[in-house]
């Protein structure tokens, strides 16, 4: 397979001004007629050849240039390209007729069928699976699309833009013509033809235009789209209020489909969504589902400006639209819910999954330098780390400065396909600030490690922070340069109050309680003056940069102090996490030392177990009714294993898992009265109606976290209570949480709860995803047999991406089974990847890329050998997709 390199970017030799598409949809095949108006974009006199992208399953029926059928020597057709030559000078038209078979398309790229409906997914390169085209984002054209289909099975015919015309055709067929007035790249093209129900509402923009909002879903789900509709309205309002951005057409459609590779797709005015991110009801969806629907509906809507009006010049720039749009959706969700909890959740996700990616075999900068399949680079790095880079601009420029930068970005680039450098330039120019050093964040992979030490000089009343940074080498990048790192800092006095800050060189009369230090070099010092007492520093407030921070000389007493007093909720939570992390690291060291006792339990207990001071600090948090319940739930949660693994060379993941479980059990035992009190305090009143609002969700978060800990006790009384809770739950949040608390504890309650859950929800595929995921992720030893059994269960379908994600990705989290010492878990994953790859290469690649296979080197020698053997087996497979090949081959290097 051939890699594409960022440095090789060249503008296209021709541009396309107008696209006229006609889709004749039939059961046996679909005809696509495409009429394209080209204009020259080359230098010089002689028209160069025109290479159009295609795919071998797109059958070329006819091609004409300027109305003439092409002679055989004027075009060349290969598996991936249709190249036209001998073209006229100046502008010309090309007509192409192709035939495709959407009903056989299981890859879900291009045009395919889901639950009997025709739908498209073109990002990144699906459009070339429909017709031959300049399938690249810097070719922006105006589209008119005519769709023809049988009326009875496909009453709804949709495409981008405004409906121009529609009507009946002979033989029970009908048509619709859509026109999109905004130029767009083909990855934003969309078409839907099917039998769908509709819910309609409106939104009045700030300039007084009334926008029609429509959400389409299967009839059985249409009563569950209200939350998505309200989320859309809130997002439209928020983008006007915060960024002055108004919607630009009179109609906005969302279509929910059940077979979809990604979460959702921002096609111009016709967003297509994975149904799990549209459909929500209290009985079938958890608080997390409600929050995700709100966040993703907003995300796709926000793309209308950041992505669609201003798009990417090439796919290497993906973070231009994704990092920015994730930042926007994070801020939206923070404004709609608890800002502190949202930040903690986002940081947890970044540290659990993106940091692991950044230190693994697929490590890449937010703007990658090369790819084989672009689909493999829709990653946490491009999205979540990319959002952190945007957040740093916001931190440095302030809210108002960031808004100015956004205004300038749209003023300069509306209607264009641009690069990350253009965005950074707009941010810099808006405030006259030099942000050129930030270029390093776009080119360099890996998580920087920052070390900070503080020194108090009582006589001079100064407090000096010395900060240094280094980024460890990543594959293909051994030497790393310093990157600019904003470090938000506060100083706490002995009474827990914030000290006013006077940063040397920054004196301007104000004495804020948080200062943003900018660490630009490898090493730098910052001096605070007029510091009246020895302070406790609160560092990296709000997680002001995506780095790993080590604070020299920060002892447990200081961390407990910060956990009790810090006014910055992120740092407060972080103090607790640091205490837990160092405990887990110490206990792991003991547990891994087989000379120290027979069992993990014995070795860990010999090392002192969980210290009383830590239990006391967590008890104080748990007992504080003034704290947000979701914050408390996060504060008593253990850091994930994947956050710890990077710091344990040659880790035995099962021992680490056992240590975490041991600590969870110890905490549950020692905090039992407080956990039970928290459940009592937060339990819903009988008959209380469910509401997804942040305050109600926060209560449930605390209750269910407490129940999870209590479940760890494996106590009969608790088991009976959890089973009762699965039966009496009035909403999915509580139902699934009680089941999750039982799932790792074999016994009658567990089996009954699982059985009853299935009976209750067997008609709801979206709910069964939870049922499948919870079983596949269970830690019970020997669970692999049960997981294999699920593959044959009538609820499971290999062709449905959601089902694959629920089963296989959950299994990856079942450490004792996935990392089983005999290699059976790895073999199962490899078998499954190969099986899925034949059906859907993107899903197979996601399974490979999300697994420990991409970080082979981090594990003990025996497991490394077992994983490598499976990777070799995958690579030896005939007909392996380029998607899986790229990830598996990188992982082996
Ligand atoms: N639809 C995906 C997203 O919105 C890819 N653009 O992130
Ligand atoms: Zn996006």
TrEMBL record:
Peptidase M1 alanyl aminopeptidase Ig-like fold domain mapped to chain residues: 446-551
GO BP term, pick one: proteolysis
Peptidase M1 membrane alanine aminopeptidase domain: residues covered: 228-439
Domain Aminopeptidase N-like N-terminal positions: 89-188
Family matches, as Pfam families: DUF3458 (PF11940), DUF3458_C (PF17432), Peptidase_M1 (PF01433), Peptidase_M1_N (PF17900)
Gene3D superfamilies (UniProt xref): 2.60.40.1840, 3.30.2010.30, Neutral Protease Domain 2, Peptidase M1, alanyl aminopeptidase, C-terminal domain, tricorn interacting facor f3 domain
Residues annotated as domain Peptidase M1 alanyl aminopeptidase C-terminal: 557-893
Cofactor(s) essential for the protein: Zn(2+)
CDD domains assigned: M1_APN
Keywords in alphabetical order: Aminopeptidase, Hydrolase, Metal-binding, Metalloprotease, Protease, Zinc
Transmembrane segments: none
GO molecular function: aminopeptidase activity; metallopeptidase activity; zinc ion binding
Family: Belongs to the peptidase M1 family.
The protein's name: Aminopeptidase N
Organism the protein comes from: Elliptochloris bilobata
């Amino acid at each position: 397979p051939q890699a594409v390199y960022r440095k090789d970017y060249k503008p296209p030799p021709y541009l396309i001004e107008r696209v006229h598409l006609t889709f004749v949809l039939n059961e046996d095949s679909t005809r696509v007629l495409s009429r394209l108006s080209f204009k020259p974009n080359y230098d010089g006199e002689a028209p160069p050849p025109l290479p159009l992208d295609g795919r071998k399953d797109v059958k070329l029926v006819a091609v004409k240039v300027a109305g003439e059928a092409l002679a055989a020597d004027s075009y060349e057709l290969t598996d991936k390209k249709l190249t036209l030559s001998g073209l006229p000078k100046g502008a010309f038209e090309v007509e192409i007729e192709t035939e495709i078979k959407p009903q056989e398309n299981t890859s879900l790229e291009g045009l395919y069928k889901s639950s009997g409906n025709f739908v498209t997914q073109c990002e990144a390169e699906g459009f070339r699976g429909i017709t031959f085209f300049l399938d690249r984002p810097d070719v922006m054209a105006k589209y008119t699309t005519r769709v023809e289909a049988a009326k009875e099975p496909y009453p709804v015919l949709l495409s981008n833009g405004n409906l121009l015309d529609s009507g009946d055709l002979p033989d029970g067929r009908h048509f619709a013509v859509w026109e999109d007035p905004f130029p767009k790249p083909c990855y934003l093209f969309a078409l839907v033809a099917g039998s769908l129900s509709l819910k309609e509402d409106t939104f009045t923009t700030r300039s007084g235009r009334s926008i029609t909002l429509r959400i389409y879903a299967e009839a059985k789900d249409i009563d569950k789209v209200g939350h998505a509709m309200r989320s859309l309205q809130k997002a439209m309002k928020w983008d006007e209020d915060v960024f002055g951005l108004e919607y630009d057409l009179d109609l906005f459609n969302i279509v929910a489909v059940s077979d979809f590779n990604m979460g959702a797709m921002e096609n111009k005015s016709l967003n297509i969504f994975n149904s799990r991110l549209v459909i929500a009801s209290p009985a079938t969806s958890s608080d997390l589902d409600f929050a995700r629907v709100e966040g993703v509906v907003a995300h796709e809507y926000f793309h209308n400006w950041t992505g669609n009006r201003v798009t990417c010049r090439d796919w290497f720039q993906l973070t231009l639209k994704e990092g920015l749009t994730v930042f926007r959706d994070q801020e939206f969700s923070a404004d709609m819910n608890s800002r502190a909890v949202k930040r903690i959740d986002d940081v947890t996700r970044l540290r659990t999954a993106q940091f692991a990616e950044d230190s693994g075999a697929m490590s890449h900068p937010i703007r990658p330098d090369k790819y084989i399949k672009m689909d493999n680079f829709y990653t946490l790095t491009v999205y979540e780390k990319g959002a952190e880079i945007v957040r740093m601009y916001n931190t440095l420029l302030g809210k108002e400065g960031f808004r100015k930068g956004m205004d300038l970005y749209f003023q300069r680039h509306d209607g264009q396909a641009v690069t990350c450098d253009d965005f950074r330039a707009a941010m810099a120019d808006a405030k006259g600030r030099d942000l050129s050093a930030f270029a390093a964040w776009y080119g360099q992979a890996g998580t920087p490690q920052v070390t900070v030490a503080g020194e108090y000089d009582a006589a001079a009343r100064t407090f000096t922070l010395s900060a240094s940074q280094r980024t460890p080498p990543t594959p293909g990048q051994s030497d790393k340069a310093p990157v600019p790192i904003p470090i938000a800092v506060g100083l706490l006095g002995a009474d827990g109050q914030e000290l006013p800050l006077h940063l040397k060189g920054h004196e301007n009369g104000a004495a804020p309680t948080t200062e943003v230090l900018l660490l630009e070099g490898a090493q730098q010092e910052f001096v605070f003056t007029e510091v009246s007492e020895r302070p406790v520093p609160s560092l990296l407030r709000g997680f002001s940069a995506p780095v790993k921070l080590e604070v020299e000389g920060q002892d447990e007493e200081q961390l407990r102090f910060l956990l009790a007093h810090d006014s910055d909720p992120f740092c407060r939570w972080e103090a607790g996490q640091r205490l837990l992390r160092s405990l887990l690291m110490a206990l792991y060291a003991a547990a891994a030392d087989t000379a120290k006792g027979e069992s993990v339990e014995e070795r860990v207990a010999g090392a002192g177990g969980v210290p009383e001071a830590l239990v006391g600090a967590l008890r104080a948090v748990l007992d504080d009714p003034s704290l947000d319940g979701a914050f408390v739930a996060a504060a008593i949660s253990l850091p994930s294993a994947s956050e710890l693994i990077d710091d344990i060379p040659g880790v035995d993941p099962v021992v680490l898992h056992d240590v975490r479980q041991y600590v969870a059990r110890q905490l549950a035992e020692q905090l039992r009265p407080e956990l039970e009190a928290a459940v009592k305090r937060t339990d819903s009143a009988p008959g209380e109606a469910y509401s997804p609002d942040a305050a109600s969700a926060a209560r449930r978060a605390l209750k269910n976290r407490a129940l999870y800990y209590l479940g760890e006790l494996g106590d009969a009384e608790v088991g009976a209570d959890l089973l009762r809770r699965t039966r009496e739950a009035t909403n999915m949040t509580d139902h699934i949480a009680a089941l999750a608390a039982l799932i790792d504890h074999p016994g009658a309650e567990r089996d009954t709860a699982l059985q009853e859950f299935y009976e209750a929800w067997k008609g709801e595929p979206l709910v069964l995803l939870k049922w499948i995921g919870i079983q596949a992720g269970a830690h019970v030893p020997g669970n692999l047999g049960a997981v294999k059994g699920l593959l044959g269960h009538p609820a499971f379908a290999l062709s449905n991406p959601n089902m694959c994600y629920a089963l296989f990705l959950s299994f990856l989290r079942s450490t004792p089974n996935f990392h089983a010492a005999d290699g059976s878990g790895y073999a199962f994953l490899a078998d499954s990847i190969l099986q899925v790859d034949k059906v859907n290469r993107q899903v197979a690649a996601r399974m490979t890329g999300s697994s420990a296979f991409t970080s082979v080197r981090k594990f003990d020698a025996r497991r490394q050998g077992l994983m490598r053997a499976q990777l070799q087996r995958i690579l030896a497979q005939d007909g392996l997709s380029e998607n899986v090949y790229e990830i598996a081959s990188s992982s082996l290097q």
